[in-house]
Amino acid sequence: MGTCFSTLQFRANRCDGCGDCMTACVQAKSSNGDGAQSRIRILPAAAGTGYELALCRQCADPICVMNCPSGALAKNGTSGIVEWEADACVNCLLCTAGCTYAGIVYEADIGHVTKCDLCAGDPACAKACKNGALEYRTEARIFNAYGDKEDLFCRGLSACHGCNSELLIRHTMRVVGPDAVVAAPPGCIPGMGVVGFNGQTGAKVPVFHSLLTNTATMLAGVKKQYDRVGRKVTAIALAGDGGAADAGFQSLSGAAERNDPILFVCVDNEGYMNTGMQSSGVTPYGSWTTTTPVGGAMHGKRTEAKNLPLIMTMHNCSYVATASTAFLEDYYAKLAKAIEAAATGMAYLHVYAPCPTGWRFPSSMTAEVCRMQVRTNFVALWEYDPHNGLQFTHAVDNPEPVENYLKLVGKYRHLSGEQVAHIQRSVDDKLAYLQQLTRADAHRRIA
Amino acid sequence: MSVAETESRSSNTARSAVCEGNEAAAIGVALARPDVVAVYPITPQSSLVEHLSQMIADGRLDADLLNVEGEHSVLCGLQGAALAGGRTFTATCGPGIAFMFEPYVRTPGLRLPMVASLVTRDMLTPQCVWGGQQDAMVVREAGWIQMHCETVQEILDTTVMAYKIAEHRDVMLPVNVCHDGNYLSFGVTRVEIPDARAAEEFLGPASINWHVALDPARPMGVDPLTGGSGGVGPKTFVRYRKGQCRGMQNALRVIRETHAAWGERFGRYHAPLIEEYRLDDAKYALITIGSMSGAAKDAVDTARAAGEAVGLVRVKTFRPFPVEAMTAALAKVERVGVIDRSVSFGWNAGPVYQETLGALYHTGRPVPAISFIGGLAGADLTAEHFARAIAITRELAWDGRPREPIWLNEND
Questions:
Q1: Inter-CA distances, A295 with A134, A139, A301, A415, Å
Q2: What is the pLDDT of residues A200-225, one digit of tens each?
Q3: CB under 8 Å to B86, separation ≥6 — which residues?
Q4: Nearest CA to CA, how far is B75 from chain A (Å)?
Q5: End of a domain among A141, A172, A202?
Q6: More exposed terminus of chain A, fewer Cβ within 10 Å: N or C?
Q7: Is A2 part of a structural domain of the chain?
Q8: Which pLDDT score, from 0 to 100, does residue B231 have?
């Protein structure tokens, strides 16, 4: 696999043209006397509404570098930054002619070209953007760290278009590694062929098509025997919410109470998506499903989802966390802790898996739906261990209204204003409750 | 209950003890040296897993104890341990096996050679915590081997033998060692306990997961969907099912061989499939199963003393059903009365009766038969009940029509 680099991400739909990024850039660069113009420029969009960006893209195959006759421009193979060297530059400006992004321009005040250098990995512009339109994305290091590790699933898993579960389990197992036993209870994960035929299809590690009801305890038994004979094996469940929160709950609860040394990953798509979009115990209020339909007398699910990850913190788990595939770095940090915890105790990861097929949204929108779950606090990202208690890992201080999330997802299309208000209240209440817990745990840590 | 142990003078046994049936089972389990024991209490089985837990707590049994939150998890945890290569044990009964049913039906298909005691108890409802064999009969088509014991000693010996049978390469199926709740579970007698090393030698090393494993050293996908409703899917399924049936049929031979080897090694010969009692010159016979057989044999002796040509057949191995052995036994008599401790609702008769009719087909002649149902919900089956059964059986004549069952305890 090639090397991947951190980069600036621009979301035009969140940009209000305030110019704070440009001010920050000028301040950052003029302070060392190197230029007075911003290297990032926000311009009215050519289409007429909104804004667009003029900025060096740190191209993989940069035209500016190719055009440069003096060797003043070079792509840094470690950082990915296209670097400009003053001493070598002959001011021919051929680089500016090659760039279609207006990413390198001549600055008359200082007499040479300037371009974005990503502030050595801490770009001032992104920090200044209050709307989240500019974000410095560092997930690339994940691919650098794990891209060369063996993918422990064969090609050809048959997940639906846009499903993030396949992404999640491929990432997860690369990190967990081959000394593992996987259990996958009935649901989308075996449904996509994870329990295959001996390394020809599905998982390349030992994999068991467990029962919907028994995954945690079955794995506890596997682990017990390997502990007994002194072999290090990670016992990992890749389960849906039915296999965790509903029929699988007794087994999960028992294993958690015993702090059995297993890693249980619940891939929560808020219902029985594999069997045709039926409601589960973690289906949120108001959701359309095939068993909580919308009609004259019923307007989607009438009751709230149970908060399974929070319930898990009330057991004796060594580690519990929620995660979103839109925040992979957050997930990776949690996965590392979970793997470590699972060597001696129970680790539980609750990962949200918006389902394009069952929730009725375009398959290209999964990442955005994941992101909006977090940005509206519909999903809170936190972690828990008995020593540190509950802590947010990605607090969202100025959340968007939950309606902005709900309108992305077809299963909420029928919601009345009253129902939306109900969901907003519920989101606020649940967040307030989590905040109380984090405060209480913080006090406890200090004491 | 505590074991009263004494040094035995017998060269075949290291010691003897006075104990209840549940403890005898626990002693047998300890001799088999399981890796993982999963426990959950249910009457009348509870003292069995209590004994095992205490043995582990005392360090007398080097096994890992899995304390779980219900029978379902009991078996699931053990399936995991077995798939990782561990020898396992648990015990259950009645509503416990009903709750365990989902993983229970899966165990034979996985060909996991597990051993579990089934301390038979009548099934709900009406609510009942007492003995009866309805639980064993409900699961008779689940694919487990079932061996029903008559005595406390037989429980101990059969529990050890069960591992040898289950783990035999031609069998590879789970075994329920069944003993009657109350009468055997809490019945206290003297038992001979084999020397631990001799028992270990008898069993040999555990042979659990050579064929199916969750082991990173030899990764495999365990139990993928057989795929599609036509062609290779059902064809694969048939291969599995036929394999299970073959394993069951092989078990008939392996059970006989194992019982013979046990007799040679420890001096106690138990009937492996069926036990014929005073049958050779009998004109008619009772068929029994489990602990009732002792009182039934007494009743046969009494009737014999009065000149009656009656014999008895006790079914030890109920699954696989020993069709050939039963046919050979039934060929010796003119009339049979079958006594069940459970009910076949579909046949208005007892399950052992129903199975006996199947074996009778192979004798090639019409044999008058009648179903007696007794001992439900812990009711005692006494010599008087069997005397009545003998008297009724003696008078049977062939009329080709099904008979109403006789409910032996109906008027107790």
A1: 43, 44, 11, 12
A2: 889 999 999 999 999 999 999 999 99
A3: A221, A224, A225, A228, B34, B35, B36, B206, B208
A4: 8
A5: A141
A6: C
A7: no
A8: 84
A385 and A438 together in one domain: yes
Helix axes of B152-166 and B196-203: crossing angle, nearest 10 degrees: 40
Q: Which of B317, B312, B303, B308 is nearest to B280 (CA)?
A: B312
- What whole-number distance in Å separates Cα of residue A402 and Cα of residue A376? 5
Q: With CB atoms and an 8 Å threshold, state whether B84 touches A253.
A: no
A217:B80 CB<8 A:
yes
Query: A166-180 burial, b if ≥16 CB within 10 A, otherwise e?
Result: bebbebbbbbbeeeb
pLDDT of amino acid B2: 45
Tens digit of pLDDT for each residue in A111-166? 899 999 999 899 999 999 998 899 999 988 888 888 889 999 999 999 999 999 99
Q: Is B175 helix (H, G, I), strand (E, B) or coil?
A: strand
Evaluate whether B119 touches B91 at the Cβ level (below 8 Å): yes
pLDDT per residue over B312-321, tens digit each? Answer: 999 999 999 9
Q: Is residue A68 domain-shared with residue A207, that is, in the same domain?
A: no
User: Is B410 an 8 Å CB contact of chain A?
Assistant: no
Task: With beta carbons under 8 A apart, name residues in chain A contacting B78.
Answer: 221
Domain B6-203: which topology? Rossmann fold (3.40.50)
Question: Does A231 fall in a domain?
Answer: yes
In the numeric block, the tokens 């607090």 are attached to A395
| Cα B254 to Cα B272: distance, rounded to the nearest angstrom | 9
When divided into structural domains, chain A yields a total of 2
Q: Which domain holds residue A396?
A: 150-446
Classified by CATH at the fold level, domain B274-407 comes out as Rossmann fold (3.40.50)
Residue A1 domain-assigned (yes or no): no
Please state, in angstroms and rounded to a whole number, the distance separating the CA atoms of residues B203 and B397: 48
| Portion 219-258 of B in contact with A at CB < 8 A | 219-225
Query: How many C-beta atoms lie closer than 10 Å to residue A203's C-beta?
Result: 28
A31 confidence band (pLDDT: 50, 70, 90): low
Query: In whole angstroms, what separates CA A233 from the centre of its chain?
Result: 27
ipTM of the complex: 0.91
- Residues of B whose CB is below 8 A from A210: 76
**What is the pLDDT, as a whole number, of residue A32?**
62
Q: Do A179 and A30 belong together in one domain?
A: no
Which residue of B lies nearest to A226 if distances are taken between CA atoms? B84
Residue A156 sits in a domain of what CATH number?
3.40.50.970
Cis check for the bond before A123: say yes or no (omega within 30 of 0): no
- Indicate if A419 and A308 belong to the same structural domain: yes
Domain ranges of chain B: 6-203, 274-407
**Would you call B225 and A204 a contact, using CB atoms and an 8 Å cutoff?**
no
What does the block give as tokens for A322? 């929620």
Same domain, A134 and A157: no
> A193 and A317: one domain?
yes
Model pTM score: 0.90
Asked if residue B124 has pLDDT above 60, the reply is yes
Q: Among residues B243, B7, B2, which one has the least CA distance to residue B110?
A: B243
One-letter amino acid at A337 equals K
Tell me if A250 is assigned to some domain.
Answer: yes
Q: Put residue B319 in one of left, alpha, beta given phi > 0 → left and psi -120 to 50 → alpha.
A: beta
Residues A103 and A179 in one domain: no
- pLDDT per residue as tens digits for the range A61-78: 999 999 999 999 999 998
C-alpha dist (Å) from residue B390 to A279, B293, B296, B385, B396: 60, 13, 9, 9, 10
- Residue B152 binned pLDDT confidence (cut-offs 50, 70, 90): very high
Chain B residues in contact with A181 by the CB 8 A cut-off are 84, 214-216
Please give the helix or strand (H or E) that residue A170 lies within, else none.
helix A164-176
On average, the pLDDT of chain A sits at 94
For the purposes of burial, counting CB atoms within 10 Å of the CB of A108, is it exposed (0-12), middle (13-18) or buried (19 or more)?
exposed
